[in-house]
Design goal:
Layout: E1 3-4, E2 7-8, H1 12-15, H2 17-38, E3 40-51, E4 54-68, E5 79-81, E6 89-91, H3 98-124, H4 126-130, H5 136-168, E7 200-207, H6 212-236, H7 242-260
Length: 261
């Protein structure tokens, strides 16, 4: 048997619902923040315009931007262009979804660490955890309730942030905007839907991103919400709040059996 600091490893707790659920929570919390933190994609679009020196030929240039955690697209260095005979022009990228992504990853990491710690308590300190006069099961219950709430909050926030990231990842949603706040002035259109720069023939989206990793992380976030919420009942059964009710019920049943006899 494995012994650490005089404590012997006891796997019995892992066979119980609270221990098995905690194993699942540890695994899926790690998957959730890994999928979010490891997810990345890119966007690209192509600009086609008439050659200023030769009206019979065209010039094309591709603008591409890679992004990853924490998904602060507005922090990406602008892309500098010098085509279409309009001089130097810059393309900026919209959106900062870092706060939603960081919140999600933070909760995932904290829950993962707590799950590991509690598994160590379950398996190496089972006698301390299960003593009736101790409050460890109550602490475990309350902390798990808080984590269930935070999984709801961070998964909802990251789901909303991912929706915004998908919108920003599609150049068609912002490259045609004109005015002082235009992000891609070279592709700006007027109210009639024509390019303001008449040398520009087209601005065409080539890739609007692949969000499979982000979608999976959101699903895993809500799965963690379910796991932490479902485990509250099993943790409640370990507390001294539940045991008196069980004892009263057993006494009532014994009394009813005695009266029948």
């Amino acid at each position: 048997m494995v012994t650490v600091l005089g404590r012997t490893f006891n796997p019995e707790a892992l066979k119980q619902p609270r221990g098995f659920m905690r194993l699942l929570q540890c695994f899926f919390a790690m998957l959730a923040f890994s999928c979010c933190g490891g997810f990345g994609s890119s966007l690209s679009f192509k600009i086609t315009c008439t050659d200023a020196g030769d009206n019979s030929s065209t010039i094309t240039e591709t603008v591409k931007a890679d992004y990853s955690y924490p998904f602060a697209l507005d922090k990406i260095d602008p892309h500098t262009l010098d085509i279409c005979g309009i001089g130097e022009s810059k393309v900026y990228f919209p959106g900062d979804f870092g706060s939603d992504a960081k919140f999600f990853v933070f909760i995932g990491v904290i829950c993962w660490l707590y799950a590991i710690l509690s598994l160590l308590v379950y398996t190496f300190m089972a006698d301390v955890y299960e003593e009736e006069q101790k409050n460890y099961p109550i602490y475990d219950l309350v902390i798990s309730g808080f984590f269930a709430f935070f999984w709801l909050a961070c998964s909802s926030a990251w789901g909303h942030g991912l929706s915004g990231l998908k919108s920003s990842g599609d150049p068609d949603n912002w490259i045609f905007q004109g005015g002082d706040n235009a992000l891609a002035p070279i592709c700006a259109k007027n109210s009639a839907g024509s390019f303001i720069d008449t040398n520009v023939q087209s601005c065409e989206t080539l890739f609007a991103g692949n969000f499979a990793g982000g979608n999976i992380s959101v699903v895993l976030g809500f799965l963690n919400l379910f796991l932490w919420s479902a485990n509250i009942w099993f943790l409640y059964k370990e507390t001294k709040w539940f045991k008196p009710n069980t004892e009263i019920l057993n006494e009532e049943q014994n009394a009813s059996y005695g009266s029948i006899d």
